[in-house]
């Protein structure tokens, strides 16, 4: 399977989201990554339901929604109604992770679990067969434009080993500091989905930037 590209809306031009979404529609992007932050779980606030609903009405790619919020289980039904294709919850924010994952699937979405940089992949031992995707944060969550954490490569390899050993079909997604300099190494390590924000939307030609990391 060729790796997927999920540009992150967090790095888009908020004064002209329609224009940037049109760029995504005319690119080789596979998904659109949307970070939802509550200012509690992470020190920032981002998109709310009205913005996501508006984005869903014009984007031609599946919505990869990443919840960086406390008590994510309270909002599963709402994000299903907003059109999320995949709903990602943090291991660190989910007290009853298995129940939350099951509820996401019951609402017709793919279920993802996110790990912060300090959280080892071993915590997924008992749930890896129940999730469709694991998102590894390669920066500390909350802000775009951060420097890539180098030990992510080894973490991807450990996660891939766990997935293969358990016979799981989970994809590996990486988010944070992804660009044309590290994309090939991330895919070689085992990443299936690359989230790229600043690299894409900060580029003079976002469509070409996406093409570069899609065709490594």
Automatic annotation (TrEMBL):
Task: Give the cofactor note text.
Answer: Binds 1 divalent metal cation per subunit.
Q: Care to name a GO molecular-function term for this sequence?
A: metal ion binding
Q: Which reaction does it catalyse?
A: D-ribulose 5-phosphate = D-xylulose 5-phosphate
One Gene Ontology cellular component term attached to this UniProt record is: cytoplasm
Give the enzyme's main class according to its UniProt record, as a single word: isomerase
At which positions is substrate bound? 8, 66, 142-145, 175-177, 197-198
Q: Name one GO biological process term.
A: pentose catabolic process
Record-listed E.C. numbers = 5.1.3.1
Instruction: Please give the cofactor(s) recorded in the UniProt entry for this protein.
Output: Mn(2+); Fe(2+); Zn(2+); Co(2+)
Q: Which Gene3D superfamilies does the annotation name?
A: Aldolase class I (3.20.20.70)
Keywords assigned by UniProt? Carbohydrate metabolism, Cobalt, Isomerase, Manganese, Metal-binding, Zinc
Q: Where is the active site?
A: 35, 175
Q: Does the keyword Manganese apply?
A: yes
Which pathway or pathways does this protein act in?
Carbohydrate degradation
Q: Which residues bind a divalent metal cation?
A: 33, 35, 66, 175
Which PANTHER family does UniProt cross-reference here? RIBULOSE-5-PHOSPHATE-3-EPIMERASE (PTHR11749)
- Family listed: Belongs to the ribulose-phosphate 3-epimerase family.
Name the job this protein performs: Catalyzes the reversible epimerization of D-ribulose 5-phosphate to D-xylulose 5-phosphate.
The molecule here is called: Ribulose-phosphate 3-epimerase
The scientific name of the source species is Xiashengella succiniciproducens
Query: Lineage from the top down?
Result: Bacteria, Pseudomonadati, Bacteroidota, Bacteroidia, Marinilabiliales
Q: What gene codes for this chain?
A: rpe
